[in-house]
Amino acid sequence: MRDGKKENATPALQLDFLSHGTLESRDLAASRKFYEEFLGLTVVEMSPIALCLRLGGNHTLVVVKTNHEHTMPFVNHNGLDVSTPERVDACYRTVMEQKDAWGLRKITRPKEQHKSYSFYFWDADENCWEILANPPNGYAHLFPSAD
Q1: Secondary structure, 3-state, the chain
Q2: Starting at the edge strand that comes first in sequence, how are the strands of the sheet with 42-47 ordered?
Q3: Per-residue pLDDT for the chain (147 aa), expressed as one digit of tens each?
Q4: Superfamily name with CATH number, domain 20-142
């Protein structure tokens, strides 16, 4: 196996594109305001119970209204990239300044981890976010050739 793929292997499924992940929301109107006004994401209403989010690429997150209450496990977090550790620190200061207004909690301090500088927080819907300094196009550099 090389670079995460078996050499000369034909996958069982012939897929084209990794398109989206899913988040939950208890209040779509409040969540939309958070995504647009705080995170700066582009938001499209897909249906009365779903939003679609995007920022700087083609991968999207679908947000679905639910009454199911749980906290997203840390390991399932969503990454938001910035270009430098200084920008991570600036984001951290903003998160700390506005945490009460947006219902943010469990905010970690920025630190060097997994070869990047980052911190984590949970939003009012209990979704976990990481803000990290990463190269342009995020982790794409780990994949030296096109899929």
Answers
A1: CECCECCCCCCCCCCCCCCEEEEEECCHHHHHHHHHHHCCCEEEEEECCEEEEECCCCCEEEEEECCCCCCCCHHHCEEEEECCHHHHHHHHHHHHHHHHHHCCECCCCCEEECCEEEEEEECCCCCEEEEEECCCCHHHHHCCCCC
A2: 20-25, 60-65, 50-54, 42-47
A3: 455 555 668 899 888 788 889 999 999 999 999 999 999 999 999 999 999 999 998 899 999 999 888 898 888 999 999 999 999 999 999 999 999 999 999 999 999 988 899 999 999 999 999 999 998 888 887 887 755
A4: 2,3-Dihydroxybiphenyl 1,2-Dioxygenase, domain 1 (3.10.180.10)
